[in-house]
Amino acid sequence: MRRRALTSAALASSVALLLSACVTLPAKPAALPTDFVPEPTVSPGDGTGALSPDGFSAAQRMTVRVRNVGCGFIATGTGFALDSHTLVTNRHVVADAKRITITTYDGRSIAATAASTTTVADIAIITTEESLGSAYAFRAQEDPVEGDVITVVGYPNGGRLTSTAGVVLGPTTDPLGGAVGTVLATSASVEQGSSGSPVLDEDGRVVGVIYAKNYSNQSFIVPVSTLNTLLSEESLFVPESSCTTSSQYQGLP
């Protein structure tokens, strides 16, 4: 893919959008299918040695759909497993939740038991009692640089599991004004529902987390250096409140 130059002026003139898919709650919302298994796709960084017997890579198996049923709305996003009971997504994906449900690549539905967020970046941590599986994120220690090829794995529009490639365009300030420090812009095309998607380098390591896009179709990621710092400082996270009682979210039924 041809490298495109990134300028602060171009970014400043583009309106950034959060990427959780949010709609008004209908009178009787249809349930998500429980038997849906997405078709496997191969993307950069998916070596044949990483494929499971069902044809999915480790990156695809660790990536989950996040469904937030709130008070008067339903939102969907993406997340990825850090271990068998912990996953990363975006803060805005879990905001004002009444109930959070995780759907794995093979169609399993798992209830979240707790969610916590930080104001440093658009990052949230979700925990579960049921196992998320055996594929977990391997995080890089350094941020990608301009021109690096990356792959985004997620559930755009709350639909099927997909992979899309792009390149890092460079560092910039948060176009939404909510993050401390710099974020990275990329050319990877993402949609609503892609919020929280892992961004992988060519070796399959997580180098960032998708959280927004602009009208120029540039996507923005929380860099892995910020993610690693947050995960090493538990005090930076606070329990997310439920929309029903303003109490801490505890996986309400």
UniProtKB/TrEMBL annotation:
This is Trypsin-like peptidase domain-containing protein. The keyword Cytoplasm does not apply. One of its GO terms (molecular function) is serine-type endopeptidase activity. The keyword Lipoprotein does not apply. Residues 1-21 form the signal peptide. One of its GO terms (biological process) is proteolysis. It comes from the Bacteria. Keywords: Signal.
